[in-house]
Design a protein that fits this description.
The protein is mostly beta strands. It has one domain: Jelly Rolls (Sandwich), CATH 2.60.120.10. The strands form two sheets. A six-stranded antiparallel β-sheet has the order 1-7-4-9-3-2, with no helix packed on it. It has a three-stranded antiparallel β-sheet with strand order 6-5-8, with no helix packed on it. β5 and β6 form a beta hairpin. The chain is globular, with a radius of gyration of 15 Å.
Length: 149
Amino acid sequence: MSEEKPKYAIVSKTPNYTPPRDESAEFGEKPHHRDKTEGAVEGLVFTSPELVPGVTMNTGIALLTGKPGEFIEEHTHNSDEVVLFVSTRPDHSLGCKAEMYLDGKKHTFTHTTVVFVPKGTKHCPIHYKDWEQGTVNYLMHVLAQPDYD
């Protein structure tokens, strides 16, 4: 019996954003991590077995201080991943439109958002549009394996 691939899940504070029902679960310096706009991404930090011996998950955080270009090329992983778009504003707005592709389909967010990406799911690139002057956001990931493949 083949294992059924779970649906990806999106949890977002974006007003009026409803993930498609058939695509979302119901619940309340790496090769493909290249910013094509110099100086927009700062503080890219990862955990990995090289940095944290015995770590069982891979995490990363990037501080976005200017409009990034196309960020993170399309790829897959051998484990589940959670991607977080985190606002620094009290109203949770990102001050831009963040576009992330999942299985080739574009999803647009304007507020703090959590995206669950099941293993083997094609995801990215990420594009940012309508970046407001002075916007500062975080882009984070948590991968359920120690190495970022």
